[in-house]
Amino acid sequence: MQAISSSRVAGAPSMLEATNLSVVRSGKLVLEDVNLRINKGEFVGIVGPNGGGKSTFLLTVLGILQPANGSVTVFGHNPQNVNFNGNVGWVSQSAASIPTKMRMTVRELISLGTLSTSDLFSFRRRKNDEVVERALELVGLTDLAEMDIGRLSGGQRQRAVIGRALASNAELLIFDEPLVNVDRSSRNGILKLLDDLCHNENKTLLMVSHDLTAIRQSAHRVIYLDGQIQYDGSPSEIPDLSGLAGLVGLQHVHSHTHKEEE
Ligand SMILES: Nc1ncnc2c1ncn2[C@@H]1O[C@H](COP(=O)(O)OP(=O)(O)OP(=O)(O)O)[C@@H](O)[C@H]1O
Ligand SMILES: [Mg+2]
């Protein structure tokens, strides 16, 4: 069922490329012969069953895991050989559950995003202030800038963490399950934010989610990963994804728990 991906931004520069990529973890072949190319400005959703290799793929893109075969490049470079210096933003689910007892304001948390290794010794304070204000604005937290992060709702906290990634000015933003534990209205707000980042800021987004409804309503392209790429194409052109999903345990989170939405 391998499909040629219909890139929204044909001709745009390539941000990420995997070529015949295989990854082995503890002697087990987790990713096999993965081939894909993601261009600047694309919003790509990655779905698949538990253990299908989604997080493994992200860790390989970040240079933390090494290919057993083939290669992956980000901005044309092997991620293991370069320091992306804030060019790649990473928002994990656990990042949203930052300790609520930590005394820190939203502005302080977002400011942490401006710290990159090259800046550590030449802290350009003025420029950073502007970047932080812009990030606050983009995630809609300007009014809550001085609030303690412990007092934020789950959705607001997730926005703050996204704001921290934005403050790094990353071109490529990677999200691993950003919507878990986020209620429906916050979820829709976050999806709108991601969509805006893509269209207005020309960011490239890669989002892993089990939330098919969310992927359908936001991503331009869906990759179904189960060891290998089982599907790569438009979210609207996967009529049998629900059948496929049913077979391998992917959840239609919202069709079950939020019927009123449909
Ligand atoms: N640290 C590890 N060492 C060895 N094998 C691992 C390790 N982490 C994960 N694996 C194995 O790699 C495979 C893929 O795991 P991965 O975490 O990439 O899946 P996933 O698609 O992200 O799943 P989920 O939807 O549950 O997050 C699984 O079979 C898992 O058991
Ligand atoms: Mg995972």
Report on the biggest sheet: 6 strands, mixed
- N-to-C span: 28 Å
Number of helices: 9
Judging from the principal axes of the Cα atoms, what is the shape?
A: globular
* Range of strand content: 15-25%
CATH superfamily of the largest domain: P-loop containing nucleotide triphosphate hydrolases
Order of secondary-structure elements: EEEHEEHHHHEHEHEEHH
Q: In terms of per-residue confidence, which ranges show pLDDT below 50 for 5 or more consecutive residues? A: 1-8, 246-262
Classified by CATH, the class of the largest domain is: Alpha Beta
Strand order of the largest sheet: 5-6-7-3-8-9
CATH topological fold name of the largest domain: Rossmann fold
Give the ligands present: adenosine-5'-triphosphate, magnesium ion
Task: Kindly state the percentage of residues in helix.
Answer: 25-40%
How would you describe this structure to a colleague?
The chain is α/β, with parallel strands linked by helices and 262 residues long. It folds into 2 domains: 1-87 and 171-262, Rossmann fold (3-Layer(aba) Sandwich); 103-169, no CATH class. It is 32% helix and 24% strand. The chain has 9 helices and 9 strands. It has helices spanning 54-61, 93-96, 106-112, 125-138, 154-167, 184-201, 212-218, 241-248, 253-257, and strands spanning 14-25, 28-39, 43-47, 69-74, 88-92, 172-176, 204-208, 221-226, 228-233. The strands form 2 sheets. The protein has a 6-stranded mixed beta sheet with strand order 5-6-7-3-8-9, with helices on both faces. A hairpin with a 1-residue loop joins strand 8 and strand 9 (228-233). Helix 3 runs parallel beside helix 5 (154-167). It is globular and about 50 Å long. Adenosine-5'-triphosphate binds at residues 25-26, 30, 48, 50-56.
